Inverse folding.
């Protein structure tokens, strides 16, 4: 028993050390217009970051010895942007071999070499939610990351201590897969059934283990361990936040009823183009939505969209974030957030919360990031203009007080890995069906050509 | 006589339900033509500076007067736009708007025909005037687009269309052009698995197809009046380009392809040519400038073409080319989100092009490059009344468009997306508070 404690302590210490290896910085950002999100906007204000955490916010702070000073006079300082739906920095996106693949996790496919990470940093983004694709009803687990570009070790990019999340998918994507392979689901009825029966199976699995654990007999035999089922049990126990790819109002409503029946307290609806139609129900449930600013019409289930979606949700009391789901769009999420002032009249703070505090809440990391507050992580984006202006250009991006983007020190070639086999560099041309969208990436060809021609 | 009278009465009675039925939905708003005077406006003419406190008088679809000293006719409808700004309608010089309704559904897409050589395919024919995306687009101030066939080598004939009208002819903005995708050595997603050699082989093969077609077109042009020429529609469609009567729009993006395209044009000696795409124009801006060719570029909100490129290469591209002396227009290459045109221009403005030049890139430059510069692209007397009223700088995201005129019609500021907003912002019924359908028993 004692050895176990010692081992545990050692393990804990080891973990602490390995987390401790992530770089933490000290910096004083001086005299900026500080958009805190939670406590208004403060003119001519300084932010002191020590050992990666925001230590003080105030006017005329003294520069402690050994702390770098950054002049933010005339500049706008906001919390690092958080993208609640991303597929950059993933070397694989879909495990599409089964309609339920809760056993797989994006943590195994983090690619720290992806130059898209630097480009996102150059757009003020500090954290992303690297998501599994939408090819199956219950997909893999996602990975919440900090964009600590420069390390070749995937572990350095993990958002330490972030809650577990998992991808679900409703509607056209999983049903197309079902049709292509002649299996369930091929309709939204089948999607509901698949979720209900998976949870029911998981409850039976949990019951077996509970019985085993309660059994005092010496000759008891353990049930077979099943990671797929165990993950579903963890969802049922509220230990994993479900982020569900969804578009139509009816399927959004359906999942709330299913989760209600299984007593699962939290859902984040991803994309959710028709969430506006059931905004009062979402508010009553306490579900939230992570949406596009204006994407629509790329498939039938988003034909009846409106760019006012985020505004309608916000005005109905539904917590909402704006995501990119794209290696292109992630570079200007501040501009996507500004669209809530074209399609609606959200305040600056409401608009910016959609790319900072609200996604942080949806990922369960809001105690650490999402606003400029004492005690939070030193994840900061600094702009030359107000970030909601189309003319805003990101200047510096900090994570844990460490500078990862500086416009004055921006060499064009930011690759940290160059394929030694390629003598001539690839020129990737723009196509309407852009390679930066990867929701159905890696799905086998027999799924049908149309899958490859649509986004998300 | 009596029967006749009864018949007349019967006929009139039969008409009664028609009058009642004439408008079943009292929400429908229709466009109105006529004589309008917009007063107290800050008018961005684009070609003649900015007029403070100006009046814009339009009549019969045309701009009749503009300035600070305009006499307003008694029968004109006066619209006081005090504190607001007037701009010429924005022009997107590369879209599939009207041709593509829902991109994942083949049946809802009409911009791609079977075969690689189909220049006779007319985009204007397939434009759906009732596309839901058209009102969605125009309420953002985009009044004209270049809508184009895509795919293959010579996919068809593009057309400029105004975003209001009930038939393609009512929408026709007056110009057409042949689209050609210059054979490329670069790889998109479709070609990512091909080796450099395989790609080169593909490119050479495609280039041979291109040259064969144009050789035939030149021959066809030279023997056109002979009695013994059989109909050869795809070659016939190219003849106006050979004769310098129609513009050829050559899509080339990789630096190498841009240079090859320029060389090709010079060798062929065609008089009316525009380069489109031109993603890597910044690498060879001086060479393009020297060729004297105009450029349609975009999307601006795009990832760089190479992994080693600066993150802002695509944002900065239009500015670099304009600086080199190239006449530049900006396109979105979108269908449903052409409404983002001002933001593509805004990003170009922020990353080096400057606001004034970026505004030209989506107004007068676009109009001139598309061959409608005498009709569109600026607020000038005699030009078509295509313009919008905005609460401020149209590039700024929070700016709202308040009034819209296309072809002199005051077009209602509505779209399906706006109507959905109106219906669902405060839905009725909301939830039944006493009997919620879904309310979780929180743990």
């Amino acid at each position: 028993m004692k050895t176990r404690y010692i081992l545990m302590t050692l393990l804990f210490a080891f973990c602490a050390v390995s987390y401790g290896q992530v770089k933490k910085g000290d910096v004083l950002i001086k005299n900026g217009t500080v958009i805190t999100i939670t406590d208004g906007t403060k003119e001519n204000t300084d932010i002191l970051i020590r050992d990666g955490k925001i230590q003080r916010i105030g006017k005329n702070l003294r520069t402690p010895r050994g702390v770098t000073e950054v002049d933010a006079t005339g500049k706008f300082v906001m919390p690092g942007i958080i993208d609640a739906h991303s597929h950059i920095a993933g070397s694989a996106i879909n495990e599409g071999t089964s309609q339920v693949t809760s056993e797989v996790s994006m943590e195994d496919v983090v690619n720290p070499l992806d130059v898209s990470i630097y480009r996102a940093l150059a757009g003020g983004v500090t954290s992303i939610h690297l998501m599994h694709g939408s090819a199956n009803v219950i997909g893999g687990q996602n990975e919440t990351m900090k964009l600590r570009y420069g390390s070749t070790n995937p572990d350095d990019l993990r958002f330490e201590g972030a809650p577990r999340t998992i991808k679900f998918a409703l509607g056209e994507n999983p049903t197309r897969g079902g049709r292509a392979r002649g299996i369930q689901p091929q309709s939204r009825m089948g999607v509901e059934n698949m979720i209900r029966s998976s949870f029911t199976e998981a409850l039976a699995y949990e019951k077996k283990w509970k019985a085993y654990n309660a059994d005092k007999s010496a000759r008891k035999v353990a049930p077979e361990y099943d990671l797929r089922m165990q993950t579903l049990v963890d969802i049922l126990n509220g230990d994993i936040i479900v982020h569900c790819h969804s578009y139509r109002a009816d399927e959004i409503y359906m999942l709330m009823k299913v989760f209600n029946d299984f007593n699962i307290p939290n859902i984040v609806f991803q994309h959710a183009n028709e969430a506006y139609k059931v905004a009062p129900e979402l508010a009553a449930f306490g579900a939230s939505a992570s949406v596009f600013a204006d994407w629509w019409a790329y498939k039938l289930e988003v034909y009846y969209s409106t760019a006012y979606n985020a505004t309608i949700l916000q005005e109905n009391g539904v917590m909402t974030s704006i995501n990119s789901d794209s290696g292109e769009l992630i570079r200007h999420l501040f501009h996507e957030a500004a669209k809530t002032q074209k399609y609606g009249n959200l305040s600056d703070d409401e608009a910016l919360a959609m790319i900072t505090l609200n996604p942080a809440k949806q990922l369960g990391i809001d105690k650490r990031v999402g606003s400029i507050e004492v005690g939070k992580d030193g994840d900061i984006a600094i702009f030359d203009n107000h970030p909601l202006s189309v003319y805003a250009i990101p200047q510096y991006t900090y994570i844990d007080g460490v500078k990862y983007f500086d416009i004055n020190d921006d060499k064009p070639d930011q690759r940290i890995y160059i394929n030694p086999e390629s003598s001539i560099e690839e020129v990737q041309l723009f196509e309407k069906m852009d390679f930066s969208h990867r929701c159905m990436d890696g799905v086998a060809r027999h799924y049908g050509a149309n899958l490859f021609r649509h986004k998300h | 006589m009596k029967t006749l009278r009864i018949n007349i009465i019967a006929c009139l009675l039969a008409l009664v339900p028609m009058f009642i039925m004439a408008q079943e939905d009292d929400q429908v708003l229709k466009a109105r033509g006529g004589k309008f005077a917009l007063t107290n406006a800050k008018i961005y003419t684009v070609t003649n500076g900015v007029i403070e406190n100006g009046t814009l008088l339009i009549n019969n679809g045309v701009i009749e007067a503009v300035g600070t000293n305009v006499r307003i006719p008694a029968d004109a409808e006066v619209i006081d736009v005090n504190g607001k700004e007037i701009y010429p309608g924005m022009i997107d010089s590369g879209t599939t708007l009207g041709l593509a309704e829902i991109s994942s559904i083949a049946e809802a897409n009409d911009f791609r025909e079977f075969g690689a050589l189909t220049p006779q395919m007319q985009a204007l024919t397939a434009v759906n005037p009732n596309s839901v995306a058209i009102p969605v687009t125009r309420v953002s101030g985009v009044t004209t687009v270049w809508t184009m066939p895509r795919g293959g080598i010579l996919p068809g004939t593009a057309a400029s269309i105004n975003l209001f009208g009930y038939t393609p002819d009512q929408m026709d903005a007056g110009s057409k052009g042949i689209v050609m995708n210059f054979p490329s050595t670069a790889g998109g997603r479709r070609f990512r698995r091909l080796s450099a050699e395989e790609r080169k082989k593909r490119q050479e093969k495609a280039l041979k197809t291109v040259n064969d077609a144009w050789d035939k077109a030149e021959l066809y042009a030279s023997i056109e009046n002979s009695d013994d020429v059989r109909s050869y529609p795809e070659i016939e469609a190219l003849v106006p380009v050979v004769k310098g009567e129609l513009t050829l729009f050559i899509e080339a993006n990789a630096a190498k392809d841009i240079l090859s395209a320029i060389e090709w044009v010079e060798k062929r000696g065609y008089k009316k040519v525009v380069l489109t795409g031109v993603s890597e124009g910044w690498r060879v801006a001086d060479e393009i400038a020297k060729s004297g060719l105009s450029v349609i570029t975009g999307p601006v909100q795009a990832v760089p073409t190479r992994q080693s490129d600066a993150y802002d290469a695509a944002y900065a591209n239009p500015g670099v080319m304009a600086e080199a002396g190239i006449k530049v227009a900006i396109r979105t290459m979108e269908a449903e989100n052409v409404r983002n045109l001002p933001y593509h221009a805004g990003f170009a403005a922020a990353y080096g092009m400057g606001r004034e030049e970026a505004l030209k890139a989506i107004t007068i430059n676009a109009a001139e490059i598309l061959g409608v510069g005498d009709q569109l692209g600026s607020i000038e007397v005699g030009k078509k009344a295509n313009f919008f009223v905005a609460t401020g700088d149209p590039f700024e995201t929070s700016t709202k468009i308040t009034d819209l005129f296309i072809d002199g019609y005051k077009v209602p500021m509505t779209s399906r997306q706006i109507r959905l907003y109106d219906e669902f912002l405060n839905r009725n019924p909301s939830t039944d508070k006493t009997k919620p359908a879904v309310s979780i028993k929180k743990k």
Q: What stands out?
A: The CA atoms of residues 154 and 180 of chain B lie 5 Å apart. The domain at 30-88+378-435 of chain B is CATH 2.30.40.10 (Urease, subunit C; domain 1). The first strand of chain B starts at residue 35 and ends at 44. DSSP finds 14 helices and 16 strands in chain B.
